[in-house]
Amino acid sequence: MSFAEFGGPDVLHLLDAEEPHAGPGRIRVAVRAAGVNPFDWRLREGQFQGTRPIDLPSGLGIDAAGVVDEVGEGVEGVGIGDHVFGEGSSTYAEFAVLSAWARMPEGLTFEEAAGYPSVMETALRVIGETGVRTGQTLLVSGASGGVGSAVLQIARDRGITVIGTAGAANQDYLRDLGARATTYGAGWVERVRRLGRVDAALDLAGSGVLRELVELTGDPRKVVTIADPGAREFGVRFSGVAGSVPDALAETVRLLTLGRLRIPVEKSYPLAEAAAAHTDSQTGHTRGRRVLVV
After folding, report:
1. Are 153 and 177 in contact, with CB atoms under 8 Å apart?
2. What is the CA angle 29-61-85, rounded to 5?
3. Which helix (H) or strand (E) holds 237?
4. Are 205 and 284 in contact (CB under 8 A)?
5. How far is the C-alpha of 105 from the C-alpha of 83, rounded, in Å?
6. Which 8-state DSSP code applies to residue 102?
7. Phi-psi region of 74 (alpha: psi -120 to 50; beta: other; left: phi over 0)
8. Residue 258, number of CB atoms within 10 A of its CB
9. pTM, whole model, 2 decimals?
């Protein structure tokens, strides 16, 4: 899957390309599923050209799960035929090179596994950046998507209380993940206050709520966003630089193995329908993850 110009989902095209190969410290997988992330469609629209420009044409996708079929020089602990999930580049493809990976835990499907790498790295990073600690309360705006689902479960594992905002249809989903849930819309700030004190806050949706999050926490340094480019105006931290993906994958495996983590796949799409997956992702209101099946 590739795009030769920036624009809407219609710029995506499935085409034949040369197979990539695993260089030193890398592995190649026969992709079985690829995660669909907001980063992907923002890249497709050209939103990052001012900060991390790319040359066109370009592939898409950073998350994948698949079967190892090529191992680069210096790689140990993984072999041909192993089932792995991780991060790489141009993963919307039949074959992709991964730079970070972990073995898939028993019982996990490729579709499920493909939805974890980026969201877990992001969730672990932003929780750390807020400074929230055990016994405190974290407010999460846009809590029902992939990153929000991960944040809620990581927080629960660490003894952090979460207040989550989401659409009316996702209230029970948030409660099932251990959050105190409330809806968006008029009066949401007061509804949050009734649910308890807020020690730190995350904006995962970019829905223009930074002023209110600063008001609820009392300190812009306790608010982190991954989706609102106006963060600087409010003194809020914009988190966009990835942390350690290997560490995130190790924590993912730990929580999955202990039965403390599950991010559902809301919908799977054939690779040829990547444009439809992007269209649906951009509408928001996701519960869990969307993935492409190769």
Report:
1. yes
2. 40
3. strand 237-238
4. yes
5. 9
6. E
7. left
8. 9
9. 0.92
Per-residue pLDDT of the chain (294 residues), as tens digits, is: 999 999 999 999 999 989 999 999 999 999 999 999 988 998 999 988 877 789 999 999 999 999 999 999 999 999 999 999 999 999 999 999 999 999 999 999 999 999 999 999 999 999 999 999 999 999 999 999 999 999 999 999 999 999 999 999 999 999 999 999 999 899 999 999 999 999 999 999 888 999 999 999 999 999 999 989 889 999 999 998 788 999 999 999 999 999 999 999 999 999 999 999 999 988 876 788 999 999
Tokens of 101: 């990976």
How would you class 184 by CB atoms within 10 Å of its CB: exposed for 0-12, middle for 13-18, buried for 19 or more? middle
Other Cβ atoms less than 10 A from the Cβ of 284: the count is 15
CB 130 within 8 A of CB 139: no
Contact 87, 117 (CB under 8 A): yes
CB 111 within 8 A of CB 100: no
Query: What residue has token string 């073995």?
Result: 103
